[in-house]
Amino acid sequence: MTIREKNEKFESLTLIKEAAFSNKTKGREKQEELDHIRTCYMVDRDRILHCKSFRRLKHKTQVFIKTSSDHYRTRLTHTLEVSQIGRTIATGIGLNEYLVEAIALGHDLGHVAFAHMGEEVLNEFLKDGFRHNEQSVRVVEKLEKEGHGLNLCAEVIDGIKNHSGFTNGIAKAATLEGQVVRYSDKMAYVNHDIDDSIRAGLLKEDEIPKDILHILGVNNSERINTLVTDCIENTLNNIKKGDIKVSLSDEVGASLTKLRNFMFKKVYLGDILKIEREKAKFVLGHVVEHFMKHPEEMPIIYQNIAEDEGLERAVADYAAGMSDDYCLNMFNKIYVPKFVIY
Fold this sequence. Notes:
single chain; mainly alpha; Hypothetical protein af1432
């Protein structure tokens, strides 16, 4: 028996029957020889962790652009927090921790420079719109490894695709593990964005509605603990009743939604960051405009995409992969004079 088979046997002894078992995966688009040590989801986690798109997350904005402090979240630290929360929930329920980790680490690979400001630019630019969850799938299926993709398992790709959105009408991931990541994402960003907003002087703790604090907790640690505990207990109760889904209780779920709405009004779409949002959109918009006129200046992989799928798709892929720093440097290279001739 290989070490991988021992790991798969361990899953059969420790996970609930509704979990996604590694030896029952729907598999990869291209069949591969099984690893002797790692389960398929361990392999996928490692592929994501070592890919270039993952490393670029360290220079992609979460909320606050080009801050002077090292303590604000980036897209990378957000991803790690989602992974940590998701794994805790998974172990509490009895789900596959490695599948949760793989989905969590890959869920934001398609996010644009300057966070949702960049996403707005590309959403207006592409005829069919731009959604970062779909771009994350495109990254792992097509763009990574110079156009070969990472060849991930179907369950990981499904979880990445369906991690976004917070309304009942949004499609759910096929696995409970994917649904865990969807909730973990919201738990992470709402709470850490409060922390960053207070640090930036844009928000005071006492501005948060008291009824929310009463239910979720008065600080970041208490709120995360409330949400994680509630998600575990409520999901186990759902499964016990035959309702196979991940969810929060009505009271806690409503409070999280209210807190999220509060953050959108106060911080994400608030007037304080409006000027910086417009600057970011100006920069990325002009970079996109330049490469529409000069596609020959893009790396060869994107020139090939332009031939196969059209120039707009290629420019969107190139722009979506840029970190904040890379985009700013590109804007500077294209539009800012380097010297003056008298």
